[in-house]
Every structure is written in structure tokens, then in C-alpha cells.
């Protein structure tokens, strides 16, 4: 044997850092924060150990906890005091996200991103206005164009409250363009849009739907979220969002969709975000509780894989723990 090439030479402790191709930093991470208008105390989220729904009065304290770890950005999700057919609390001036955003942007240095969707706010739990047909009808879906105006109003109300960036997640065709126009008309041309550009109809959102109380009351989301079987379609979705003015392109979920992260990275020069979703977090937690996985190592490895696939930023429930460990 004549082994001239020995990759193991570069794996000693002294050099491993020098030759590593990818790294994780606290500043790559965005921490999701749940603000709940129905409670005045913090409520643990059972399926997401370590996470809580916090009342508006605690939003600043919660975000300060995040900032202490070195993470500089948060994504705010709201649980409203009441829901209706159209999700009107989503764009209310005194809505839960608007109130929390006002306080957090005034009192902290966090970069505040808001999730723009209607599913937490509608009584039926769908991400838009539902067609007027029997709930048992399997083809029942969300009315695309009627939803656009509501999303636009919601995004503007977040910007008026001081949001640094808005993140539409409803998979409504045309949502980025409608939001961009409305923000510009309202004088918020400097507020960027991080689009959930390729968002799949995924089984990995289960714990989030408990946390945010946003599970659909009937049917599912496959009429608007993407089919996990498709990759080329993701490129069409992303391209449309780019044409409509998206500033940051998100792929969601992350772990099972690293091929999509990579493909988006290669075709576009926009920053790419990966959403390490609730089910990905819950899975690692559950296995580690059983003693089957090392929590921190598995979390770190997952996030590193997202960076390696091409993500610039990662939205993750591990943000604080990983930033603390870095
Ligand atoms: C709302 C929204 C969802 C998630 C983020 N924004 C839920 C959904 O589409 O059902 C899921 C996030 C997660 O699972 O961590 N549209």
C-alpha cells in the first residue's frame, strides 16, 4: 500500500478548527418566542421542553433572556384572546403580536421578526379565508386572493408596531408582492420580507400547532402548502417570491429538506434561511430524554448540517441552548 493521500492528517485537534468548512455562530440564529394574550402567567409548552407561552407583560423579559445568550433576533408568534372566521385579531392595532412588538422594540435591542399568518387567529385554524362550503368536503380550501389583503393588513400592522422584518408563512400565491406593495404604500419600504418561500405540508409541525393553538379544525393544509415529494416546484415557489420582492428566502422544515436548502443556495444570491421546526426539536428532545441521544451534540450537528447545506440563518428552538454552548 502506498497511501500518499491520508485525509486523517488533517483531523488532529490542533488543525481541525483551521480546516473546518462551516461554523455556527449565535448571530446566525433566530429564536422563536410565543406571546399569549389568554394568560397572565408563563405556560410551559409540553411538546417543546424548555419553551413557554408568555403573556405580553413578560415579552420583554423573555426576549432579554434570549439576548443574554448572544442570539440577537427573535421571531414573534401570537396566540390571540379570541378567534373568528377571518382572523381579525391578526391585524388589530392592539393585537398580541403588535403589543409585544411595540414593547420589545422599544425596550430591547433585539431584531424583531414577526410571523405573518392567519392560522393562529382564525376559528377554523386555516391560513386564510376558507371557502363557503361544507367542512366535510375534501376539496374545501382557502380562498387565495381574498386572503392576500388580510395578510397585507397584518404585515402593515406589524411594521407600524415597529417590527424590523416580517415573515409571511401562509403559502398564499402572491403574498410577498401584496405585502411588499402594502408596506411600501404605508411608508415601510425599509422593512424587509423573509418569505417562507418553500414551505411543505409537513408532519413535523405537530408540536408548534399545540404551542400556537393553530391546528386546522377540519381538513389539512395540502391545498396550499407544498407536497413533500416535490423539489423542482420549490424552485418555482422561490423564484416567484424573488420576483415579488422577497429579501430572505426560507425553506421549511429544515432537516428533511436540506436538498432544497442546497438548491435554493445554488440558484439564488439572496440570504437563505432554514426553519428547524418544532417536530425536529421535539424528536431530539424525546430521544435524549430516553437516553438515546446526546441532546446538545445532536442539536449542534443538525444546525451545522443546515449551514453546510447553504443556510445563512436558522430559525430554531435550540437557539438559546446552542448559543449558550458556543
Ligand atoms: C403558521 C406557522 C406554522 C409554523 C410556523 N408558522 C404552522 C403550520 O404551518 O402549520 C410551524 C413551525 C414549527 O413547526 O416549528 N403558518
UniProtKB/TrEMBL annotation:
PROSITE patterns according to UniProt: D_ALA_DEHYDRATASE (PS00169)
Protein residues bound to 5-aminolevulinate 1: 209, 221
Annotated catalytic residues: 199 (schiff-base intermediate with substrate), 252 (schiff-base intermediate with substrate)
Keywords from the named record: Heme biosynthesis, Lyase, Magnesium, Metal-binding, Porphyrin biosynthesis, Zinc
Enzyme Commission no: 4.2.1.24
Recorded catalytic activity of this chain's protein: 2 5-aminolevulinate = porphobilinogen + 2 H2O + H(+)
GO BP annotation list: protoporphyrinogen IX biosynthetic process
Entry binding sites for 5-aminolevulinate 2: 278, 317
Stretches that traverse the bilayer: none
Pathway terms, separated by semicolons: Porphyrin-containing compound metabolism; protoporphyrin-IX biosynthesis; coproporphyrinogen-III from 5-aminolevulinate: step 1/4
Binding-site residues, Mg(2+): 237
GO MF annotation: an example: zinc ion binding
GO annotations of cellular component type: cytosol
Ligand binding (Zn(2+)): 117, 119, 127
Subunit structure: Homooctamer.
Family affiliation: Belongs to the ALAD family.
Name of the protein in its database record: Delta-aminolevulinic acid dehydratase
Amino acid at each position: 500500500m502506498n497511501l500518499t493521500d491520508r485525509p486523517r492528517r488533517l483531523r488532529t485537534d490542533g488543525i481541525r478548527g483551521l480546516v473546518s468548512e462551516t461554523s455556527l455562530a449565535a448571530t446566525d440564529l433566530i429564536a422563536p418566542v410565543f406571546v399569549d394574550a389568554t394568560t397572565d402567567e408563563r405556560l410551559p409548552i409540553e411538546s417543546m421542553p424548555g419553551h413557554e407561552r408568555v403573556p405580553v407583560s413578560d415579552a420583554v423579559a423573555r426576549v432579554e433572556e434570549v439576548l443574554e445568550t448572544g442570539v440577537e433576533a427573535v421571531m414573534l408568534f401570537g396566540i390571540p384572546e379570541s378567534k373568528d372566521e377571518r382572523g381579525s385579531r391578526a391585524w388589530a392595532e392592539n393585537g398580541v403580536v403588535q403589543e409585544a412588538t411595540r414593547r420589545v422594540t422599544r425596550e430591547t435591542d433585539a431584531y424583531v421578526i414577526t410571523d405573518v399568518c392567519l392560522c393562529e387567529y382564525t376559528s377554523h385554524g386555516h391560513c386564510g379565508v376558507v371557502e363557503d362550503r361544507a367542512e366535510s368536503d375534501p376539496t374545501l380550501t382557502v380562498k387565495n386572493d381574498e386572503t392576500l389583503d388580510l395578510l397585507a393588513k397584518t404585515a402593515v400592522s406589524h411594521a407600524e408596531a415597529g417590527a424590523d422584518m416580517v415573515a409571511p408563512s401562509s403559502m398564499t400565491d402572491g403574498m410577498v408582492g401584496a405585502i411588499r406593495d402594502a408596506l411600501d404604500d404605508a411608508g415601510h419600504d425599509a422593512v424587509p420580507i423573509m418569505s417562507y418561500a418553500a414551505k411543505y405540508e409537513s408532519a413535523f409541525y405537530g408540536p408548534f400547532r399545540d404551542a400556537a393553538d393553530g391546528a386546522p379544525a377540519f381538513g389539512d393544509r395540502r391545498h396550499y402548502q407544498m407536497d413533500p415529494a416535490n423539489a423542482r416546484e420549490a424552485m418555482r415557489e422561490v423564484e416567484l417570491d424573488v420576483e415579488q420582492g422577497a429579501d430572505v428566502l426560507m425553506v421549511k422544515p429544515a432537516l428533511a429538506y436540506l436538498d432544497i436548502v442546497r438548491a435554493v443556495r445554488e440558484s439564488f444570491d439572496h440570504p437563505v434561511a432554514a426553519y428547524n421546526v418544532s417536530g425536529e426539536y421535539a424528536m431530539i428532545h424525546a430521544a435524549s430524554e430516553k437516553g438515546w441521544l446526546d441532546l446538545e451534540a445532536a442539536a449542534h450537528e443538525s444546525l451545522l448540517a443546515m449551514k453546510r447545506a447553504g443556510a445563512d440563518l436558522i430559525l430554531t428552538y435550540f437557539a438559546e441552548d446552542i448559543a449558550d454552548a458556543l
